[in-house]
Amino acid sequence: MMKMLSRLTRKLHTLARQIEEPRLFALRRLGVPLDIYGKLVAPWLQAFKFVTIVDVGANVGQFALAANAVWPEAQIYSFEPLPDCHQQLLARLSQVKNFTGFNVGLGDRPGSLVFEKNAFSASSSFLKMAPMHKLEFPHTQDSQRVTVEIKRLDDVAAELTLRGPLLLKIDVQGFEDKVLMGAEATIQKAEVIVIESSFEVLYEDQPLFDDIYRAMMHRGFVYKGAMDQLVSPKDGRPLQTDAIFMRPTATITKGTG
Question: What CA–CA distance (Å, rounded) separates 141 from 119?
């Protein structure tokens, strides 16, 4: 009963926001995820006026759609290894002229790699799912193994135009350290990096938040807090966070031409 009331409360709150802000209603009709949009549209982040957005682990375009709604002139490059998710990504972003999608995974070396395709596609990963994940989220129990192409972000980015300010988002279900190792040059071009990282082991051999924190400090970035947080549906404890890292010298700007 309490869960039903909680869901109803959230729906009523969302509806109230849409009535107060007609733009939100229009964005929802376009398929823009309002939860992600609401975080990206924060004045301090919006004011960076990003010219380039690199979306690693795009799934079916949730982040890309929200980012385009906030920064409509920015060039967006999205990477998604699963062919079916990639096709949905292309379809959802088909009206965005400054968007390019790549059907490839990213890591620390090029080649091919076995990918754990989960029945809940957003939980798919290059890593095997840990028991904790299945315990907390039973709907993610089923998966199948597929082989996908993998590249280094730096190798792909060398063929792209990455103008600043640049926002890099990494959401790869435990494969974050491998993506970072293959993206050293790209990282140095970014002002802000948002990385999903875990507090508990949800995938085998994954780095945890402390590992990602140290890796980003080593690369010259500072931690600026959490954009979002995933909590346990059983007891509410934090399991994952979308951690924000920023270059200390980054300043809010109108961008470069």
Answer: 8
Distance CA 195, CA 193 (A): 6
Q: Where are the alpha helices (DSSP H) in 126-254?
A: 131-136, 153-157, 176-181, 184-187, 209-218
What 3-state DSSP class applies to 11? helix
Q: Which residues contact 101 (CB under 8 A, 6 or more apart)?
A: 58, 77, 78, 79, 80, 86, 89, 90, 93
Amino acid in the structure at residue 144? Q
Distance CA 125, CA 198 (A): 14
Q: What is residue 208's DSSP assignment?
A: B
**pLDDT tens track for 199-235:** 999 999 999 999 999 999 999 999 999 999 999 999 9
Tokens 């951690």: give the residue: 243
- CATH number for the region 32-246 comes to 3.40.50.150
pTM: 0.86
The beta-carbon contacts of 70-73 under 8 Å, at least 24 apart in sequence, are 70/37, 70/40, 70/41, 70/46, 71/46, 73/98
